[in-house]
């Protein structure tokens, strides 16, 4: 097989501050929406993701009680806050060309509505970026990755309140000015489409007893669209050579059967993701939005100038996370559902294997997804997340994760096929390049990394780092620019 990876392809890894850093009470940091999530190993595993989808007022209030004895894993992370230099050295040893990361909003503005940033937080990221650049690793930075200040939720109602645009822009302005000589790749919002599926962590909406949750979701999305356009315009002004992308969580959706009802349902379901890239990449609301809003009882409040702003400041590139595909049926009650599918629900595809967490594994779906997105938008694509969550075992100081190598090899091979198809893909960052706290289940034992972190789901362990077998494998992939995969 011919290698189609371009010479300047950006190989690397990805993490999020709220799952990685720890140091939740260091350097003046405030509480974020993710600092509220608990982990309770006594609950049945099928309930571990419930918090991800729903959050109650009692849970939010308890999380702010300093006497609470609950375990909040994302406050611990994997202690990157204190160990980032050694961890970045390991990234460099693998040969990373880029590192996709996020800035914790609450390190810079602990409550979110302060008039001046927290200098200690700014200095932390100064040191982090300097360490990356020392190894010629290009930072690709998400401004908001499920990390909005909790205070903006409890006091302002989250993104459903338009004033949050102003607070976000104060944050973005501070970041662009401070790091304009260090960062040129930016993503305003991580997985912006996930407001549909977990609105608390995405836009700060607590669904409990909400009078019109669909109205709140789409109004919040509109405010984030406006904020994204404003941030894109400002970034281009302050950093002329910057590239500002958008990002969605993307699953390839396929009809479960050739029943016309399944085909139509698939089209409608796919739009739950493409609606967001349609607005951010094309610069306007798609025609199908009119019926969508009518059926959901949504009437957007759009201020004068909003639509012109969206049209004038579209994304330079499209990035997305890809973990699985999903089969769609108009009659799902008759069929076996796919476990662990956080985005669309969906039906179990009998042609695909599944991970331990029920995520169906479909490497060829990634090629199809790349072609679909490029055909639709004709903009450069970046795969911002892809990986396999698994229960790795540390034995005699080693982790033999051949299953991860097989998973990633298969997906990278399909990226090569998409490049051969003519799709413009300029980078790939494997998710959780070092073990981190799972976004959905709040456990560390659902591991993605090339680097093992010696800690358990209860936060106990040495937190020492151990290179897995996949570490050497990924190093060879990068060194050969993909030749070791496609040859």
From TrEMBL:
Gene3D superfamilies: Glycosidases (3.20.20.80). Keywords: Glycosidase, Hydrolase. The keyword Hydrolase applies. SUPFAM superfamilies: (Trans)glycosidases. GO terms for molecular function: hydrolase activity. InterPro entries: GH (IPR017853), GH_1_N_CS (IPR033132), Glyco_hydro_1 (IPR001360). It comes from the Bacteria. This is Glycoside hydrolase family 1 protein. It comes from Pseudolactococcus carnosus. The lineage of its organism: Bacteria, Bacillati, Bacillota, Bacilli, Lactobacillales.
